[in-house]
Design goal:
This protein is of the alpha+beta class. The longest helix has 30 residues, at about 140-170. The chain has 11 helices and 5 strands. Bound molecules: iron/sulfur cluster.
Length: about 300
């Protein structure tokens, strides 16, 4: 998942790190317009689920909480399990990832529904499964077992990937710096964001984002989200962040892939400028007295559907 094979590293070194690195949009150089006093979250700025951005207005202005749906709960469960495995799979010295530790932790979860449930409990996830069981009218135990089987497949894929690739990434190309780290975007007129993993490949910082939807051709909006995290991180820490990595462990939003699809990219000027432009657009929407009109498509899977229709 967050491990990088020799082939992936070669792509990063040959195709991405060789790009023209003249970045003129750095987080530490940007001054925000504090007069706005509206600070949309980074994921709301980069999210394009609702084509009119009505969803952002409903959440940020009307204070409507999304109802859990299957995709959201699966995403949350997947994040918690992967977080646990990698957080507990590093050597204490210098944050290096440890193959044996990761595999041991991962196998224990993949083979025991009880252990799986315990980790979800520790990470405050069981209430989401309870809510979904009520909404879907499915017994809690059945839902838990379904999620366990689905997660086990992802974990087993990851164990296989680590066993096959680890020798080529030893020597510690990837160092784990932080996992599930909050980043404060307020210095740039944005809200908070949560970075899945901050790693380091030699001297370059890389931000990873784990996606539980399906990949798109360009993954443009997912890349915008990472650009937002990078700008916020640069603004707070004064350290450049040039690399992004998207990881998609699922096929068709349902089935775990045997090898996660990964998209590594350089966080270039175009992404940075587009994210800042989009931030202005979302702030202007949030300043209005009424929400944008309804979208023409995508509503079937929207977690705000009920409230949106009643407004
Ligand atoms: S239900 Fe449709 S219009 Fe309403 S927020 Fe969701 S996607 Fe947008």
């Amino acid at each position: 998942m967050y491990s990088i094979s020799k082939r992936e590293l070669k792509t990063i070194e040959d195709d991405i790190l060789t790009e023209n690195k003249s970045i003129d949009v750095r987080g530490w150089d940007i001054e925000s317009n504090k007069a706005d006093d509206i600070e949309p979250n980074i994921s709301d700025i980069s999210n394009n689920f609702c084509e009119t951005n009505r969803d952002v207005y409903l959440k940020e202005v009307e204070g409507i909480e999304p109802k859990p749906n299957e995709a959201m709960v699966k995403g949350s469960v997947c994040h918690s399990i992967i977080k646990y495995i990698f957080e507990h799979g590093k050597k204490f010295q210098r944050g290096k990832l440890d193959k044996q530790k990761i595999i041991k932790k991962a196998k224990k979860i993949a083979q025991s529904e009880k252990r799986f449930e315990e980790i979800l409990w520790e990470n405050d996830q069981l209430n989401k499964i309870e809510d979904l069981s009520k909404i879907q009218n499915v017994p809690y135990d059945d839902l838990l077992t379904e999620l366990f089987e689905w997660s086990s497949k992802i974990i087993e894929n990851e164990i296989e990937h680590i066993e096959d690739n680890w020798t080529s990434i030893e020597g510690n190309i990837l160092q784990l710096k932080k996992i599930e780290e909050f980043v404060d975007g307020r210095g740039l007129g944005m809200g908070w964001g949560r970075i899945d993993l901050i790693g380091k490949i030699e001297d370059d910082i890389i931000i990873f984002d784990l996606k539980t939807g399906k990949p798109y051709k360009e993954n443009w909006y997912s890349k915008l989200q990472i650009a937002g995290y990078a700008l916020a991180f640069e603004n707070k820490e004064g350290i450049p962040v040039d690399l992004g990595g998207l990881i998609f462990p699922l096929d068709d939003e349902k089935l775990p892939r045997s090898t996660p699809f990964k998209d590594f990219f350089y966080i270039n000027n175009e992404l940075r400028k587009s994210l800042l432009k989009r931030k202005e657009k979302i702030i202007n929407i949030l300043k209005k007295d009424s929400p944008p009109k309804k979208a023409k498509k995508g509503c079937k899977w929207c977690s705000l559907k009920g409230e949106c229709n009643n407004l």
